[in-house]
Amino acid sequence: MRNFFSLAFVFCAVSGLSTAFAAHPQLPAFERFYDADDAKAVDAGLYLLGELSCVKCHQSDKPAAITERSAPILDDVGSRIDREHIQKFIADPQAAKPGTLMPNLFAGLDPAVKQKQVTALTHFLTSTGTFQPTPASGPFVNNGRRLFHQVGCVACHGSQKEGAPSLATSVPLGNLDTKYSIAALSDFLRDPHQHRPSGRMPNLNLKNEEARDIAHYLLREVVAPANILYQAFEGNWETLPDFNSMTPKSSGKSAGFDLTVAGKTNNFGVRFLGYLHIKQAGMYNFFLGSDDGSWLLIDGEKIVDVDGIHPHQNKNGSVELSAGVHEVIVDYFQGGGEWTISASYEGPGVKRTDLAAALTPTREKLTPQKEGEVFVLDPRLVAEGRKLFASVGCANCHDLKVDNQKIASTFAAKKLSELKPSGGCQAVAPMKGVPYFSLNDAQSTVIEAALKNLDSAEGPTDEQAVFRTMATFNCYACHERNNVGGVEREREAEFVGTIPEMGDEGRIPPSLTGVGDKLNDQWLQHILNNGANDRPYMLTRMPKFGSNHVKTLLSAFPDLDRKTLAARAKFEQPEYRVKAAEYRVKAEGRGMVGDKGLSCMKCHPFGNKQSTGIQALNLQTMAKRLREDWFYRYMINPQEYRRGTRMPAAWPNGRTILPKVLEGDTNKQLSAIWLYLADGEKAAVPLGVGGQSIVLVPEKTPIIYRNFITDLSPRGIAVGYPEEAHLAFDAEEMVMRTIWHGAFIDAAKHWVGRGPGNQTPLGDHLVKLPTGQPFAVLESLDVSWPGGKARDNGYSFRGYELNADLRPTFLYSFQGVMVADYPAPVPSEGDTNFLRTLTLTTDGKEPENLYLRVAVGDLEKREAGVYVLDQILKLRVPDDAITRPANGKQELLLPVTFTDNKAELKIEYVW
Amino acid sequence: MRVFLTICLLTISTSLLSAQEDQQLPTEQDYYPLAPFTLPEGEVLEIGAIQPIPDGRLAVGTRRGEIWMVENAWADDVSQAKLTRFAHGFHEILGLAWKDGWLYVTHRPDVSRIRDTNDDGVADEFEVINDGWGISGDYHEYAFGSKFDNEGNIWVTLCLTGSFSSKVPYRGWCVRVTPDGKMIPTCSGIRSPGGMGFNHKRDVFYTDNQGPWNGTCSLKWLRPGSFQGHPGGFEWFKLTDAIGDKPQEPESGSRIMVEAKKIPEYEPPVILFPYKKMGQSASGIACDTTDGNFGPFKNQMFVGDQTFSTIMRCYLEEIQGHYQGACFPFREGIGSGSLAVEMTDSGALFVGGTNRGWGSRGNKPFSLDRITWNGKTPFEILEMKARPDGFELVFTQEVDPATVGNIASYKLQTYTYIFQSSYGSPEVDHTFPEITSAEVGADGKSVVLKIDGLQEGHVHELIAEGVRNKDGLPLLHQEAYYTLNYIPQ
User: Fold this and answer.
1) Does any CB of chain A come closer than 8 Å to the CB of residue B125?
2) SS3 of A386, please?
3) Does pLDDT of B415 surpass 70?
4) What is the nearest CA distance from B33 to chain A, expressed in angstroms?
């Protein structure tokens, strides 16, 4: 044991040294987690056999323990990668990009042969597209620097800040300046999987501008030669002026369409002039975009016009161009605000490319952009390179389509099981016709161990599979799981959040210990497929890996972690209420989440409504993400599941601090909160949430609030009663439309600012009653209830009277009948009921066959005169009430009988 | 040459002014002191309507739908005032009137009347008189109500659904609600009213605000049957024949008087309030029928501006059967944005203010102010009358003939606004007519300006900066803006 430790120490030290002095394939997980432990050596070797794509050549009998890694797809590589880089990289990968996984295919060859083959391959790869380097632009670079260090790039690639250590556990980037153009790199950053299907580089869900800015940052050293003439002007315009008739403030040469030459940010204009060298005559398409206005002239003719004051706007136009030199003028002006310009073109033999880079300052022939001769594609070399691509092994790893046809490999290698543990690719010195990987000793050792033990390599256990997957995709760079991995100390400072007072919870990605217990299957899949943004305070992003790459985790996390220990409580309603009413339970949940309960909303936002303290995870997402079982356990002891969390234990030792809520039963309380949160975006806003509130509280007498109220016409009249039962009467439909308990209403929506929009009642137990005219004469019960609006059907709202207690009686009339509708709150056990008395008077003619419609919906008759509506509202009505089917539902009707021109109806609402 | 003269005059007037400045020029407060009421602590009274009650109280209605009674509203010391709540539960009160023991309330959904039947100080009967118009739920759909006309009607102007369209019946119309609760559609073409009022002849006016078909804010005459310029509510001609057929639609991009000549129903604005010069949101209207209790401006109209927190003064005359006239600055310094404006017989001008949703220079969130006349007469242009060949100015005081008779004491330009379906308009069609003579009247209090190049349909902006009274004082307000729709023959 002692021996082992000292061996491991020496091994690591050697490995560290070799990192510093000799380039070798650099894989974070190998550097970080694998060592000389014999048991692990085999696993490490199997890991390398996959990551180094050994199995792409040594194809047959691959053990299940090896995960294949796809190499980059090289379609159109010539348009994405600089030719010189391609050449240098093929010739000596580790020299061009230290740490690369790409082997040197020509290391053992005679130098002359090697050069010939490298040149041919370079011609072939270059022939797949046209590459134009582009200079980086200052404002983008600055934003790109911020993004690079915030969104998570540094977790794998390491900080590029001055003095930042170069870590062996980083994925090397190489010298990007000489490799990519800005367009190619930003395309790659936006969708890395398109060309790197291995998924090792995840997709960070970057917006177009973010990808562009990071690309500018990574290519910040690219300096393009000043290749365009400019004249800068000053002035305040709404459209482009005639620069011909104006005297420029300055003039000179700029690198590309560089707007900073004007030295101003507002009210300036620039004319750019350059020459475009067209090789092949034909129709060319030009793209121009700017903020504010610009246009593009070719040989004096306007081809694209984006004039005027506007945000960045793109247009294009076509023109027939002859072979030869053409004068290009781009005129631009800036008023205020943002200022941008971009231009590109495409045509025969030219894939869409940056226009500025293609221009020269004089009519003379294109001068070489770099030292040396102008590069000219040689068709013979292209053909030869294409053959080599198939024969030397490139095609074994890299897909490349030419003319829509994938190049098939003609290179065959031995089966994996037939390989000798040393020699061949493993040989210390390069061998002719064999790829040379520049492995370090540790890597050779473990590969040897793996090759020796191929037979015993079994399919991994869940635990091993999780480790291998998290290592392969470098999940461990951000996430700890079961005390393995997590953010390395050297990178830790780069992980930042927007809310410093949240501490590490606000900046370090969460531990994945127990994640299969915590998250439900759908959300786990959602995160791996799409990435996550559930912690907006954390600047490091959870990228998307694609579940085809990490599907192991989808089953292994739950298999390993999941526990079933808790269950939802059973709720029983008191007999006098409606039993099945889940809304009562949810209302209790809502109460606990709000500021009169546990004040969850003080730290957790609710939808788009911010919390008052820190902005922790959104309450609306809880039930969507979490497993209910885990939620119950977590709430009782957050520290057990998230060490160091700021989340307080609201049920210390499982005991409630709200003894009056749901009989003080912890399980019921937790279940009520879960049921409430399970409504997600539809859950009612908890009390105490949101900005300014003007809560109307009826203390001694009712409050009448006329305004725009949800579910009512704009002539809504809400009445709040001190008994904490409230109603909203619709003065267009003459009906009591909604009733609710608890808090009355928040007037801030209408009393702050201009007051647009409907306000939803603030309280709980909201029940909707039918709208449409309340009374109708029905010649028979086969006649359906009249449609349309009550106002249109002859009803008039007549106002209301207040009694001595200032409670309103609503007054309305129809067909000579005057109705007085008096709702009275009746306190009862638990909650307040409404007893509504409708008094009808007529001036002589007593209408016959007149009915009042009390309810529409799913009606259940409990006993004579007692009905339950939609399982939520109990109605007590006179015994002669009638139910009848109506449009798939039921109507509850009360016959109205007049005596001495007067009729009275009483209805009690219990809910 | 003209330029030269102007420069000379500028030099002279500047030196005169600086001489005066040493003696501290009088201010508005020296003639029309403004007294702010202290409103009950913890309450929010965004006052949209004001009505004196015969028992000596003043009723104020608020945007939050409450009605408060002010006792001692006329006391010399406004801190003597006492406010108690009389009613609540209305939806944006923008009209109050009193008749036979009932307080009539115009608010968003209807005209109601209320009273206190048991004398406990709180209203208990709320009776809807008429609710014949639609509301769609858009906050713009305000309803402004007038006092009673001679037939006992209340006039209601109904804001469009927003700026452009009319989603439900009679948005963009003026209707009359009769004593027996009927509704008579009366005018079309309304956009976004800010207040209503009568002149001394009991004709009804309202203010409309800059926006589509309103290049700037204006005072408009609700001649029954007229079209007020915005065709957004034309759809509702299909519901009524009360004012005949739908008028011809105006042409967007035209000018007000070009269209007025084409469309007989179109009543051009009586007074255009030049945007950002006089104000930005014209509001409540009062008329001085106090017979001198409010000073020299008998029968003139006083109009609020919500953004500028001001009261403007309007002099109207009738030319060829239409009202037109001039506006002048009158009083600034309203606590919040002027909305309700009410003048009582004793000569007290009450102004209710709010800036919720629309900002104002007055920085209080809401206010109630009282402006009274202290008996001193300011030196002002009392009247500006159009003549076939110029204007006659009548002053409130005897003038200094030397300056008043000097054409160089005046600067004149004219302009108008584009009459268009898109929002607002810049000033356009500027001209600079020449004042050819300035003849001081025999009464020593007036001057006739002969002008070469009067512009029909233009605002005539006259800055009388060189004018002095007998004591050498300049005008309290030098600016006058006459909307010359018609040139008298």
Assistant:
1) yes
2) helix
3) yes
4) 31
